[in-house]
Structure formats: C-alpha cells, structure tokens
From TrEMBL, chain A:
It comes from Rubroshorea leprosula. Belongs to the peptidase T1B family. CDD domains: proteasome_beta_type_4 (cd03760). This is Proteasome subunit beta. One of its GO terms (cellular component) is cytoplasm.
From TrEMBL, chain B:
One of its GO terms (cellular component) is cytoplasm. It is found in: Nucleus. The keyword Cytoplasm applies. This is Proteasome subunit beta type. Pfam families: Proteasome. One of its GO terms (biological process) is proteolysis involved in protein catabolic process. It comes from Rubroshorea leprosula. InterPro entries: Ntn_hydrolases_N, Proteasome_sua/b, Proteasome_suB-type. The keyword Cytoplasm applies.
C-alpha cells in the first residue's frame, strides 16, 4: 500500500464505497429544544445558535419549522441533517396535498413518518444526527412527541432534547399542569430556557418561542431573556480560597 | 492498521420490566410504563404491551392462535440474527383450548412455552420470587408437567402487583406505573397501578 493509502485507512477513511458515506460525528449542532402542551395547543422554544464544536459559529439558525397545517418540528443536533429532514417532509406534505382529498397529515402521522425515517437510517449505520420534537393540534387533539437519532420515540405532556432533558424536564415535572394558559406556558418555557442559558455552554441568548393551535402556527420573532449575574459570590470569587487553583 | 471502533452505538437501553403468568382459563400480562435512557427518565407513561393479530386475521380469516403468534415472533427476531432487535419479549395469550399460554424469548428468537416468565431490567429480581410463589414443577420431569398455575385470576393479579412493587424498590429502571392486561374467555381487561416514581 502507498503511504497515503495506509494513512487514510488508519483513519478509517478508506473502506468500501458505503463506509465513506456514513455519519460519524456531527459538525454544526443546535442545542436543546423544550416543548409543552398547554390549554390551546403546544408551545415550543429553541434558541438560534448553531455551534461548530466549541465555537458559537451561527447565531441566526431557525431550529423550529411548521410542517403542513397541523404540525411544528423542532430539532437539535446536526443542522444539515435537520435541513435534509425538512426536504423529506416537504416532499411528504407535497404528496399529501396532491391527493387533494380534504384530508391532511396531522402531527401523529408526521411523527410516525419521522420515526420510520430515523430508525431506518440507524439500521444502515448512517443516522440523521438529530433529536426531533414534533408538536401539533388536529381536530382538537393536542399531540407532542419526540424521536431520537436511533429511532426511540414517545409522546408526553412535555419533552426536551439534549441538556433540556437534564435541566428543563425536572422543572416541567414540578410545575407543568393541564390547561396552562398561554401566559403561564410561556413563563414556564422561559424559566427553562433561562436555566439552560446559564448552564449550557452551547446556548445563546437569542431564542424563539413557537405556538401551534387549531388555528395554525406562530413563531415569535427572536428575542433575548433577561439575565442576572450580580451575585455577591461573583464579585470576589476567590475570597474563601486565596491562592487556590 | 487498527480497525476503527464505532463511536456511535445503534442501541440504547430503555429499561423496564415485564411479567406474564398463565392460569387455567386466563392469562395475565404486566409491564411498567417507564422509559429511560442512561440515568434519565424520558417518559413515565409508555405502554410496553401490544395486541398483535389484525394482519393475520385478515389473511387467514380466523383469529391468530397464541402458538402461531409465538412462532411468528420467533421468526421475526431470528430474521435479524446478525443485527438483533435488542428486545426481550414475553408473549401471553390463550391457546386453542382456552388455557393460559405464556412464551418467553431472548433477543434472537429462542423461545419456550412456560407457565410464567419475566424479562427486562427487573427480571433478576422478579423471576426468583415467581419461582418461589408459583412452585413450578421441574422442567426435567418426564412426562412434562404443566406449569400453568392453579391460582385464581385475582390472586395472580395481586401476585403481579407484589412483584412490581418489590422490583421498583431495587431496580432504578422500573417504576412510575404498572399496566396489567388480563385475557380470558370474556375478552381483554386493562388495569393500572401507581408505582414509586423515584
């Protein structure tokens, strides 16, 4: 083998044709998405950050998109894979519209489709590196579900991806209840997003909150959360341990 | 040249336990409703029990018998022998004579008809307890003795509740809620019981 070939095969870059096409690790990633059911539908929040490893490279990434008339999709993980999923869903909704039969895909159908897509990709060892949150309302029925990159899917009254699972879910478990008003739902989501902003290094302070009800989807314009850093402990952090590392 | 190790696994362990007990004219199937991933709980309300018979019924014009379903499940699992479904199954139903029928599986489809079984993260805690309470005859005896329990339906349901209450204490992946499905000549009945959420 030539020097170049042996180097490349050491890095696993030479293999059969299919190997060179597999996803091995994500490059540009979005962080947590948090969503909950409220009185009139679903509320979902995600910040607009796209990280490139530890760099906060992109700050205007829309990680939530409406799908058809009844659903809203939020994604964390690899942004390019999210964009690919949007293309698949575009085609799905197009074919659905072409039937022109008065019926349209609701959130359950879209969630099922996404689960199949994610699971089939993981079976080929070429996953779409995303955690997807799918929410929607159809015929008065609210629906909120999640699909992971290996195809694990479930529904619940509130879901979160990534760090949101560790930081937001406990808050939601404590404070979520049936029939939250819109204002209370937004306050609860903002509380979760604020904790994530303080504690998740890949969070950026520019977020959108999306609402989906029977009437349709509204995604808010980007805005920032108020933060407070004036804790006395921050003024002189080493006061209790002078000369320590 | 060293073979590159995969840094991503296609499998995840979502935890949970399930139990099935066969009676003279009923079958009890139960599973907790917690879905976990690592040390996280993804949801507390995920059903792990499914009814399987509609496609068969449409094609064969009769209800699918439990032994037929048992073979189907075994074949489905073995089909993926070299990239297995990482799932540990228990199948419960009524056989052609109306007696309770439980089949237990491993991840690649090896199966056996038994009088009772448990699978999942809590099975190591539940199975010995069932062995003690249901006093199963030795599988080595000839002629083979039926392991179907003489307990009544309500006694079996109580036993299952006890099993899960105990397993929940010590297995971190088992808890939240117990879903119990009872099959008998009258049809299917579902019951729920709250379990510890910690």
């Amino acid at each position: 083998m030539s020097y170049m070939d042996s180097k490349m095969s050491q890095h696993g870059l030479i293999g059969s044709e299919s190997d060179s096409q597999r996803t091995l690790y994500p490059y540009v990633t979005g962080t947590s998405v948090v969503a909950l059911k409220y009185k009139d539908g679903i509320l979902m929040a995600a910040d607009m950050g796209g990280s490139y490893g530890s760099t906060l490279r992109y700050k205007t990434v829309e990680r939530m998109k409406p799908i058809g008339k009844h659903s809203l999709l939020g994604a964390s993980g690899e942004i390019s894979d999210f964009q690919e999923i949007l293309r698949y869903l575009d085609e799905l909704i197009l074919y659905d519209n072409m039937w022109d039969d008065g019926n349209s895909f609701g959130p359950k159908e879209v969630h099922n489709y996404l689960t199949r897509v994610m699971y089939n990709r993981r079976n080929k060892f070429n996953p779409l590196w995303n955690s997807l949150v799918l929410g929607g309302v159809k015929n008065g029925q609210k629906y909120l579900g999640m699909v992971s990159m290996i195809g694990v899917n479930f529904e619940d009254n509130h879901v979160a991806t990534g760090f949101g699972n560790h930081l937001a879910r406990p808050i939601l478990r404590d404070e979520w209840h049936e029939n939250l008003s819109f204002e209370d739902g937004v306050k609860l989501l903002e509380k979760c997003m604020r904790v994530l902003l303080y504690r998740d290094r890949s969070a950026v302070n520019k977020l959108q909150i999306a609402k989906i009800t029977e009437e349709g989807v509204t995604i808010s314009p980007p805005y920032s959360l108020k933060t407070f850093w004036g804790f006395s402990a921050f003024h002189n952090p080493t006061v209790g341990a002078e000369g320590s590392w | 040249m060293v073979k590159q190790q995969p840094n991503w696994s296609p499998y995840d362990n979502n935890g949970g336990s399930c139990v099935a007990i066969a009676g003279a004219d009923y079958c009890v199937i139960a599973a907790d409703t917690r879905m976990s991933s690592g040390y996280n709980i993804l949801t507390r309300d995920y059903s792990k029990i499914c009814k399987l018979h509609l496609i068969y019924q449409h094609q064969h014009n009769k209800q699918m018998s439990c032994p037929a379903m048992a073979q189907l499940l075994s074949n489905t699992l073995y089909y993926k022998r070299f990239f297995p479904y990482y799932a540990f199954n228990v199948l419960g139903g009524l056989d052609n004579e109306g007696k309770g029928c439980v089949f237990t599986y491993d991840a690649v489809g090896s199966y056996e008809r038994v009088g009772y079984s448990s699978q999942g993260s809590g099975s190591t805690l539940i199975m010995p307890f069932l062995d003690n309470q249901l006093k199963s005859p030795s599988p080595l005896l000839l002629p083979a003795q039926d392991a179907v329990t003489p307990l009544s339906e309500s006694e079996a349901v109580d036993l299952v509740k006890t099993c899960f209450a105990s397993a929940t204490e010590r297995d971190i992946y088992t808890g939240d809620r117990l879903e119990i499905v009872v099959l008998n000549a009258d049809g299917i009945r579902r019951e729920y019981m709250e379990l510890r959420k910690d």
